[in-house]
């Protein structure tokens, strides 16, 4: 990782009008095929709760590890509820998007798809010196997209590995974007200062 500030990206137009249909599990497979895109993905959302001495995380197979809740166990707000970095009500958090080099050039966001996962445990507890990894994958036009997220019992950060077979044939212009949506939740009494000094780095 590097200390690069992630600035809010413009909202992605993942589906051009009339070219695809949005469904509960992302994009309609028949419409995608009409765009020259073939996805092999799971058909339902699955959740896992991660608990360490420092954090509580609710993570899903949507997007290959969408985090719905990221709470700090040792820090509370004035109302005694835990400080949150990612809040399910705010619907903030990260996503990965790219322009597809296959078929028509469409902007694709990974959170549109339910990934397969090799670990379907509902709850995981990590001791102070332990670690735990979640792996997710889909097939996109016969190219494997994989994400591996590792949690640590004695750290607040997580490690993210993004692995793609044949990225040159998958990404238009050989690039993808890490985006952050909806900022950070307010945790301080003075919300003006909270919003003024909050930053996100990757």
Overview of the structural elements:
This protein is mainly beta and 202 residues long. The chain is 8% helix and 39% strand. It contains 3 helices and 15 strands.
Kindly summarize this structure in a few lines:
This protein has 202 residues and is mostly beta strands. It contains three helices and 15 strands.
List the helices and strands and how they pair.
Layout: E1 22-23, E2 26-27, H1 29-34, E3 39-40, E4 47-51, E5 55-60, E6 66-76, E7 82-86, E8 93-99, E9 107-109, E10 116-117, E11 123-125, E12 131-140, E13 143-152, E14 159-164, H2 167-170, E15 177-181, H3 191-197
Parallel strand pairs: 4-11
Antiparallel strand pairs: 1-2, 3-12, 4-5, 5-6, 6-7, 8-9, 8-15, 10-12, 12-13, 13-14
Structural class of the secondary elements?
A: mainly beta
**H/E series, N to C?**
EEHEEEEEEEEEEEEHEH
Mean pLDDT reading? 82
Cα-atom Rg, whole angstroms?
Answer: 18 Å
Largest sheet: 5 strands, antiparallel
**Could you list the spans in which at least 5 consecutive residues all have pLDDT below 50?**
1-26
**DSSP helical segment count:** 3
Number of strands: 15
Termini distance?
Answer: 6 Å
Give helix % range.
Answer: under 10%
Sum up the overall morphology in one term: globular
Strand content: 35-45%
Structural features:
202 residues; mainly beta; five-stranded antiparallel sheet; five-stranded mixed sheet; 3 helices; disordered N terminus
């Amino acid at each position: 990782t590097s200390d690069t500030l992630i600035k809010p990206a413009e909202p992605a137009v993942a589906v051009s009008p009339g070219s695809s249909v949005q469904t509960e599990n992302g994009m309609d497979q028949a419409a995608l095929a009409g765009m020259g895109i073939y996805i092999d993905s799971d058909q339902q959302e699955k959740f896992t709760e991660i608990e360490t001495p420092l954090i509580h995380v609710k993570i899903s197979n949507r997007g290959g590890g969408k985090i719905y809740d990221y709470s700090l166990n040792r820090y509370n707000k004035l109302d005694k509820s835990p400080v949150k970095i990612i809040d399910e009500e705010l619907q903030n958090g990260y996503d990965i998007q790219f322009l597809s080099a296959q078929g028509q050039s469409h902007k694709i966001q990974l959170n549109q798809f339910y990934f397969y996962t090799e670990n379907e445990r509902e709850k995981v507890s990590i001791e102070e010196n332990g670690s735990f990894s979640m792996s997710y994958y889909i097939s996109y036009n016969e190219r494997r997209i994989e994400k591996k997220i590792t949690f640590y019992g004695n750290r607040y950060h997580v490690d993210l590995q993004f692995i793609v077979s044949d990225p040159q044939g998958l990404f238009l212009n050989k690039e993808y974007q890490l985006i952050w949506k909806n900022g950070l939740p307010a945790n301080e009494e003075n919300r003006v200062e909270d919003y003024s000094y909050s930053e996100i780095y990757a």
